[in-house]
Structures are given as C-alpha cells and as structure tokens.
Amino acid sequence: MKLQTNRGRLLATTMIAGVATFAAFAANAQDAAPTAAPTAAQAAAPADNEVEAVVVTGSLLRRTDTATPSPVTVQTTEQLKAQGITTISDAIRSLSADNSGSIPAAFGSGFAAGSTGVSLRGLSVNSTLVMIDGLRNANYPLADDGQKAFVDLNSIPFNAVERIETLKDGASSLYGADAIGGVVNIIMKSNYQGMSADASYGTSQHGGGDQFRFTGDVGYGDLDTDKYNVYLDVEYQLDKRIKGDQRGFPYNTNDLTSIPGGQNNNPQTGGSTFYGNVKPATITGNDLTTGLAVDGSVWQPLRTCASNAPLTEQFDEDGVSMGTYCAQNVANFADIQPKQERAAIYGRFTIKPTDNLEAYMSGSFVQSKTSVNGTPTTLTSSTPNNLSNLVLPVWICSAGADCATAADRQLNPNNPFAASGQYALTKYRWSDIPATSDYTNRMLRLVGGVKGAAADWNYQANLVIAHDSLESTLTGFISYKQLMSDIQTGAYNFIDPTKNSQAVRSALSPDLAKTSTTDLDSINFQASRPVFSLPGGDAQLGLGGEFRYEATNDPALNPVNDAQGLGNARTEGNRTVASAFAELGMPITDKIEVNASGRYDHYSDFGGNFSPKIGVKFTPIKTVALRGTISKGFRAPSFSEAGNSASQGFTTFSFKADKYAAFRDSHGNNEYIKDYSLSSITTANPDLDPEKSTSYTLGAVWAPTRSFSISLDYYHIKKTDVIAQASAGVALAAYYAGEAIPAGYIVTPDAIDPEHPTALPRVLSVSSPYINADSLVTSGLDLNVQATFYLPADVKWTSNLDATTIFDYKYTQDGTTYNYVGKEAPYVLSSGAGTPKNRLSWTNTFERGPIHVTGVMSYVSGMREEDDSYTEGCLYGDAAFNCRVKSFTTVDLTGAYDVNEKATVYADVMNLFDTGPMFNPANYAGVNWNPTYSQSGIVGRYFRVGVRLKY
Which is nearest to 264 in space by CA: 778, 866, 671? Predict the structure, then answer.
C-alpha cells in the first residue's frame, strides 16, 4: 500500500516537531510547576445517591454521565460481549437512536458495499461523526449513494475497545462538521495488563452464515507504578455467506402472486431468463438496437426450458396469448448475506515519566474482505448504451460488420428466424457469466500524542495519519463493444452457453477493477484550567485548535461507458480545514451549571463557519437533574457533492398506482410495464452552500441511588439548505402527465416498447445536480433506564432500557412538506429502509457466582410502504396488497460460565424465537425483506459457542 505525498500531508507531518517541542517544554515544567489541583467535582467522593464520574464525549471538561447537559450513552466492552455482540457495527447500530440511512452489512449491491455505517437521528451517515479516542478517522473510499462520506465501522478493531460513548446531540461546536446528528466516540484500551484470548464458532439453524472468530490481546506495565504500558491486540473473524436459495418463501422468490395484491416480478413473456425469449422483428436501417416486433408475433423461448423453469404460456387481460416463456426464478442467485473476512492488529505504547506527563503512540491495520454473489446480468440493459430493443441479426460473418453482403456470410445459428430472413428481438440472461463483487479494504492509522498538566493547565496534543485503500473487483458486466461484435460474428453461443470457451467469456465480460483511497492527516491541541470561582465551584475554560488535510480519490469503474448495466460513481477532491474552539463551564450555584462552547472552521474549498452551543443543567435536589442544550451546527459539502464527481444509481419503480392505469393499458399490461430499475444520475454542484442546523434538547435525569437512574430527553433538529438530489417524483409526475419537465431536471425516455411502438415510453433516467433543498425537521424522545438489583440467593440483576420514538421527520422541498415517520421513506436515500417511528432495546443480565445469563429484546415498529415524495400510493402491489411492514421483535439469549479465574465458556442463542425478517417487498436492498432493521431475522436462530482465557 502506497501512501500519497502532497502539500497538505507534508504540512501536517512536519508539525510533529511542534508536538515534540511542546512535550519537552511540558516535561521540564513539571519540576517547577505544582500539580494542578483537582476540581471540586473530582475531589469529592460520590455519595450514595450520586452518579460516578466518567469522561464524557462532547466536552473538553470532566463531567458525569447522567449530569451532563447533553445525553450520552455508554456501552462497555463487557456489556457488549454479554449481549453476544462481536463487531463495532453491531454495537452502534443496535442503539435506538440509529435510524433511516444506516448502512447494513447485508446490502452487498449498494454504492458503499463492503462497509457499515451509523445514522443517528436518521439524518444519514454523513451527519454522524465517528471518532476514535476523540480523534477523526479517514472516511470509507466509497460514498454511500454516491454522495455521503462516512467512517466505515468495520475498519475499527473491536477487541481493543474499552467503551463506546454516543453523544445524541449536535456537537459541531467542539468537533466541527458532520456532528449534526451526534457523535460516536470509540475509546480504546490504554492501560491494560494481562493476557486474554477468545475463540468462538457460530452457525445458523437454517444454514449458511457460519462464523469463525478469534481475538487475543496482551498488555504489560502499569502507568501508575511502572510508568509505561505496552498493549497489542490481534483479531480475525470470518462470516460465511448465506445464499439466496438457503431461505424459504417469501424471501427466495420474486413471485408473490399467492399473496393478495402481490406481483410476479420474475421474468415472463418478453423477460430475460437463462433460456432467452425471442420474437420476429424488423429494424431501422442497419441498427441492431432498433428492433420492432412483427405485428401478430408472440414470444417463444430461445432454447429448451429446464425442469426447474417449466414452459409457461401467458395471456393478456383479454385472454389473447402473449407467447410462452421458461418460468425461472431469478431471485435467489444473489447472496442474502455476503462473505466477510476481517483481520486486524492494534498496538499502543504509553509512557508516563511523571504524574503530570503522559505520551503515547498507537497504530492499527485492519483488512476487511467482502465477497458478494449477485444476480447474473441481462443482454438488454438500458445503460450506458440502450439495448432494450436489441436484435440478433439474420447473417453472421468473420468481420462482424456488413454481414448481409459479406463473402463468408452464413445464417445466424443463434437466430431461430434467420431462415425466414427475420431478425430476432431478444431478451436473455447470461447463465455462464456469474456476477460477483469483491472488495478488499485496508485501513492504516497511526496516532501519537501527549497529555499532562503544566502551569495550572491540563493539556493534550495529538497527531493522526490515516489512509484507507479499497480495491474493488466486479465481474459479470458485459462489454458493449465486444457484445456487438460477438452477436455479428457468432462468437458467443446463445443456444448452448456451455460450449462457449473461457476466452470468449473473458473477452465478453472482462473483470472491472479500481483502487479508491481516502486520507486524513490532522494535528490538534487542547487545554483546560480553572479560571475563576463561582458560588457553585470553579469555572473551567477549555481551548483548542485543529488543522487537518482530507483527500478522496475514487475513480470510475466504467470510465469509457463500455460496461453495460453498471451504475457509475466517481469522486475526487482534497482540502485543508483549520479550526479553533473553546468551552466554558460555569457552576453558577450548587444547583445551576451553564456550559457554553463554540468552534470556528475554515475550509479551503468553501470558506468559514462558526458553530455555538449552550447547555444548562439544573439540580433542584441531588437525585434530580434537569438539562437542556441549544446549538448551531453545519455540514460542509462533501467531495461527492461539490467536487469533481458524478454518480448513477438505480431504484425500483412501479406502475401499480391508479394514476398509471392509462399507461399500463397503452402497453397492453405486458413485460414493459413491470417493476423495473429507474436510473438516477446526479452531478456535483460547486456552488453548494453548507447545510446548517439548529437543534435543542430538553431532558431530565432521576438518579436516586448509584444503582438506579432514569433519563428522558426530547430532541429537535432543523436542517436548512439540505444537500440532496432534487426529488425524482416531481419530474416523473410531469413526464407521465404530459407536462413540461421542471427546471433543473433532465428526463431521458427509455427505448420504445417494441410491441407498442406508438405508446409513451417509460422513463430511463432522471438527472439533476445536487441542490440546497429547503429544510428537514426531526424531533423525538429518548428514554433510558439503568438499574441494578440484588435478589435473593445472591443473584445480581442488571437492567438497561434504551428507547427512542420519533415525532416528526419532515422534509420540505419546493414548498411541499413530506413527513417520513412510520413510512418507507425517504425511499431513495435510505436504500428503501424507511423511518420506523419506534426503536427499543431492553437488556437484562443475571449473575450468580460463576454463572452469567443475559437476555436482550430488540424492537422496531412497523411502517407503511409509502413515500409521497417518490410516488403516490403503495410502493408495491395493487389495491389488494396490505401496504404495511409489520414490526420486528427479537430476543437474544447468552450465557457464560466461569470455569475458574482464568477460563470462561459461553454459549449464545441469537434470535431465540427464530423470528423472521420484516416482510418488505418494496425494499430493493433485499428480496422482500428489510436488511437495515431485520438482518437477524433472515439469519434466523443462530447458535454460537466459545471460550475465553485470561491470565
């Protein structure tokens, strides 16, 4: 892996000298400077009814978890292991605050395949800041939906984590851009002593998804006594794929006609199967892509049907035969869960020469491999070259051009109508050319830093160098140039694909490969100290600054537009960001505390922004705290949105709504009007403004004892100048109504229906640049309950309830407001996941001596399969279809037994009651199910056994 060298990187790297110089000064200052006195909050031992102090994300100052003005959720490694969680992704995405726009590992065909991401408050992955030890990391090289930059959760070692702190409040005032929805701060182990190893094996009751996992770490030296610590962690995890044919109905088929209102979206007459579908046709001139069906002709298979794809005749609504086809189910070729293999190493060396000085260096390398099997592609893809009406010629010849007059011409053996001098309008799917995607992501991260106390200041300085490199290799896409040659030379055998040589297949479908990279180099410094006294204690001031360099280079996989059916995306850009920030904590009285903070960021590519925040905590009695915050936030346009970039994606579009009745009739309700992939093309806009936000929270905490607390927090976030592609629904409605296309849109019609050439064509693509839309407003309520009880028979019961309900998720564009709560919306921008109103997780752990048992109940509320901003009515099915996705509830049960002080055996049963996934036919990330919220449902009841050793 080659690290890039450039002006920004050189500037950031040379600043190491500054850090070293400051460290030397600080070390010398220790001899003369007295040890900084602890604050009142640090010095006072917590009483029985107070909450234990912790370091809280979202502040430069030391606070307590339940007493902070902002709501923070803390997940420790011990808690996560007790719940059977084995990855950072599963830990964070289990939070009730994670919602629409979250990226699941199961979406192997998405723009950001091979990654996982978190979307706090449903504001998407680009509005949630993920940090490691309070420091930024490089983004994943592929932008989600070709737009959203985010940190891949798979790139962070899990076993080296001490805890995860999630700030569910805007935090741009301290951390800058991307923190509108909240901050996830992953705290790594820094003073671990001992050795441990963990090995486990898991498998699904229904087959597939086997997991092999090993972690081991060793730490030596205590910072307080030995003055140093050395830590090393190694990890390996293999999750095998779950194939599409390993699950039953309705998740293994596109034919849901047995369900009232369901559709058969498998290929029928005029559809693309391994056996082909052909009918006699004519063309315009010599253009083989302009096929028109001969009047009165019907479809027939190109070759003999197999036993699992029986010959079937189809009739129109008037009972007239449309022809015959091989009834093949094409839904179960693609993986339900991709194969993922992950290896990681993390090391840290820390020294503490004095009580007031500590320095460290850490490094991590994580390699994640994702392998995805997809559905074989079709002959007649419509992009980038429209082959919807492609025909097989009458004559073939060695030159592959002007074959009708060539000396060596011969009748085309692939064309059953060649002998009668007719072209063959052809629909076909490649049975001998598998579609696969392989992604190898390598994240290298190096960090160095110092912290200590000098002249009454507590300080820390850090340097980060992070580089992410992603190798992508895709197979199964057809070369347009080679295809047009092969069908005219007869090089490819459509009648018997088994006779095609590997050389023919490789030439027709060459591997597509690219390497994408991102870089982040940063240096920051922050310091805090008491500044003056107030009736409630010492006011504390925190100051800091940061300079960072960011770069992305994601080339197109299809740069010359030769690969058929491939949605393209490319992004390139780099910039520097200089920031200064401050925080002032003021205990006005022993009952009122005020916290004020602000940050100024200057981006080299769009300018500056200031983000303030103020928080207030009122403690009328020791057991009750009332809290609130109000803040301004922003998100700078990403390189995908404002740089040198463009993207093309696909969503499923249906003509089932009543308003399309005339369109369906004009096409005879044939294959042309079935659900199909609508192309969405978006280009960068250098004139974009940053997104701005105003958010506030109001909450209360009741903590009568150290073992019981309840917090209830209301949140409200308004984003303006939201960066988005203009809603395709407006342009589509105008096109099908015969009206003028609104300004800013380009609607490209598909090729004509070869059976009804005078009917209005369907839409091939909708194009528009990114724009600053009007606004997005979301609000809701978080509930958290933590309790520990001591039951008879020496049983300890620990319970934690984490719940979120969303009141509003309103998106306004061009004066029209859409409320997405409880709907499968935003359909395009959430990968069809939707915005469920309620999420809940309830964990209960019972411990008695060496026995530990944990049960976790997770709940996601149901939703309507609707998105008014995309299309009217239900996103799937006709009027008889139940247009609602049911709720999803699972229970996980884990148990562990301490054989002795050094060995523990454990067994997990995930999805104990074998609950199926959310039945969601409109979702285009899975076959009739919702991967974002119900991945464990498609996996089914899952068993895991393992052993932990520690020394």
Answer: 671
